[in-house]
Amino acid sequence: MNNLRLIKRWTVVFVLFLLLGAGLAQAEGGLVIYSAASPEMTNDLIKAFNTKHPDIKVDTIRAGSGELLTRIRAEGSRPQGDIIMAIAKENLEIIRDFLQSYKVREAAAFPDDVKDTKENKYYGFSFNIQAFIINTKVLPLSDAPKSWKELGEKKWRGKIILANPALSGSAYAQLFQMVGLYGWDFINSIRRVSTFVPKSSLVYTFVGRGEFPIGVTGEGNVFTEINRGHPVTAVYPSEGTGLRFDASGIIKGGPNLNNAKIFMDWLTTKAAMSIVSKAPHFRRMARPDVPPPPGLKPSSEIKFFSYDAIEASKNRNAYLQKFGEIFAQRK
After folding, report:
1. What mean pLDDT do residues 182-200 have?
2. pTM for the whole thing?
3. What are the helix (H) ranges across 76-148?
4. CATH tag for 130-243+298-327 (out of 3.60.15.10, 3.40.190.10, 3.40.50.1820, 3.40.50.300)
């Protein structure tokens, strides 16, 4: 009888050992993240994740949204990445078939309008609200443009810097909004006065340095430059700005699915998102229980208009082709 009890006891211990061992195995190995977030934000998130999961070696590839979309589609059924992080919803809709369905542990904390309610393929990260960044040392705020329409005025020739919408998700969002407001002739006016760069990070960096007085970027980037001590401020266009968000998800067929699930469970927590809402990142997060960043204008004081991410996704190829044709003009 005593022997039977001993056998049962050791059987329970052995089973528990196997279960714990399986759990540890899931938290080991690698993870590859494709990130559209800034290098600083990406690094801060990975550092925090590794304090929780030190056995998971994380490699990151940081690039603009256009580059990441191209990469994921080119890799096809043999993806090299596990996570796509902080990329606009409309871009995730383009690669929906390349995403893995997964319901994160705290899915209930996300309202339906900032997650994929159909198949659990992505969860909101932050609200990527577009605003003007003005270097007030180069251009007094009183003289700066206050509306989208003013950006097309001839007096701004050589003074506006924008990112290429074919390479930047935020730049494409700017294009989509401006076309919706004023049509393609207005985009031609913008083309005549603006300098276009391949990376969205160059926009706020160059304005922060005073190399250009005016740019268009995500509002969080403006406050990042303020935090760096640069004389810049955010101007929210008088017509309004699109209420849009970026999100993250798991790449289907990636090499480290278990670790990808662990990362998504962590990334969607309040603690993880609070890292991004504070200095130096200043993002309004998709989880409503994460406090807004200090110093940003309250949402109630910003004029918004509807941003149809599905329509933006459907029109992307046609819009970029049209933009390319306009960009190629010399007059």
Report:
1. 96
2. 0.78
3. 89-94
4. 3.40.190.10
